[in-house]
Amino acid sequence: MKTWVASLVGLRRDRRALWVGYALVAFVLAVLPFAIDNSIGRTWVRVLDFALLYALLALGLNIVVGFAGLLDLGYVAFYAVGAYTWALLASPQLGLHLPFWVILPLGAGVAALFGVLLGAPTLRLRGDYLAIVTLGFGEIIRIFLNNLDHPVNITNGPIGINRIDPIQIAGIDLTRNHEFFGIAFSGAHFHYYVFLMLALASMFVCIRLEDSRIGRAWIAIREDEVAAQSMGINTRNVKLLAFAMGATFGGIAGGLFSSFQGFVSPESFILLESIMVLCMVVLGGMGHVSGVVLGALLLATLPEVLRHTASPVQQQLFGKVILDPESLRMLLFGLALILVMLLRPSGLWPSPTRRREFADTKEQR
Amino acid sequence: MSATQAALLQAHGIDKRFGGVVALSDVSLTIRQGEIYGLIGPNGAGKTTLFNVLTGLYRPDAGSFMFNGRDLIGLKPFRVAEQGIARTFQNIRLFANMSALENVMVGRHSRTRAGALAAILRSYRTMNEEQAIRRRSGELLEYVGVGRHAHALAKNLPYGDQRRLEIARALATEPRLLALDEPAAGMNATETAGLRKLLDRIRADGITILLIEHDVKLVMGLCDRVAVLDYGRKIAEGAPPEVQSDPAVIRAYLGGTLP
Questions:
Q1: With 0-12 CB in 10 A as exposed, 13-18 as middle and 19+ as buried, what is B76?
Q2: CA nearest A358 in B: which residue?
Q3: Domain assignment of residue B219, given as a range
Q4: pTM of the predicted model, to two decimals?
């Protein structure tokens, strides 16, 4: 009896500690852009914004690669589809200026459709074969965007689309500076909060999906497709769902990207981008939502950090710049990838092998 | 089991070729409701091929196959599972990196409904369903006797328990026919005895069993009727004692004289 009471008190204390922890994290996330802005400059707030976009992308790819085990090397195609959907529907290019709450779901929907279009013909493929087909798909989308400026000019070809409408929430243009309660917000600050909300919402969605009937079906297909099918899983539908869900995330990220930049061109959607997002997933911890986000944040900011530190550090050490910072940056970046994969082959933050022991005692809930 | 019992599965004239190799030729068999039906034969006789035909993994080149009054030819494996045939695999095919409990929970897939949206929203109904899946899966783990390993990864289970886990996963699909592909392979005498007890219990609970097995002692002791395949043809069928004394069967197993 006594131990029962004690454990209940412990639980309550734990729960309180949990809430304090949440509040602390929320506070840090809320003031982070200001802290960065005032210490190391606004550029870094923008770097953070892009890191959050990459987190969105990595979460989407994680559904396809991490959960369902379908190696997709053309993921950036969905990013491109989302970006161009936004660009076409909210810019002078076609003279359309739809509000963001119409375009964002529309972009997600169009990307999901492309996800199914890619998924349907590749249902029988796995592993390296699937990788090659998806790689081709990614390139096809990019080349289309590059060449759809004639006979009818839709995408404006390699020049890209300019003057894309920013996100407007309650009449506030998110790319301009505003002041609330005496605090100055810049466009980078606004986008930080919008992207943060979406990234958190996506994490929430991914975590719930993973621990569900659908999530188990995805993982079962990853583990053994034949067995999964024999256990009554409609592998075709479940795989298409994975492609569509992953593409949706990519489409949303793409739309935000084009509104944030105000400009898109096919150059932003090269194969290297797909590979970067895949690196984020693998390096962070394939299949683990938090790990994937960590991987995205690290890989998106690390090259920028190296870019800004490469020459000052050399100046300090040798008195002159020996290696061009741009090439040194990629060298160090590649080295970091190799080291992580050698030392932690399952990723920086892999999913805890099983925390299920606790899951069973949740009847008390 | 009496011969008057209704037929659960009727296969007629099944042919299956792989290129020039005839794996099955004109195989017919009838499995009655509630019996344990054994399928034996030398290596390469076509047992597993027949199994894969019956569970939808292979499409036969000819023949028909009725289960529970429905024609299942050409149905995808997941549809066959929905119709009530569940199977295990000769070379164990568990979801290695999922826990034992989750493996069984996957088996509940075709009997539950929650989609992606329901998973995200987690309505009261979805939570109830999820809890029911978890409860039922736990019960099935206990039923086959691997409850103590519920949270261990499937790949870390002892070999015999992996075989049992596969049976639990198959039972989770609520089959009317449980098809077991060499469940005693690699088991020692004690484990085989335990398996036999389990199969008897499953049958007593109303599930018909189709059993491929090399362990002749197990088959003869357990099965109500036995069919013998050799080179893709059925050479004998009947109660174990009849089959054991059938000259064609003896020839197939021990080799006959040259003509």
A1: middle
A2: B151
A3: 7-84+175-254
A4: 0.90
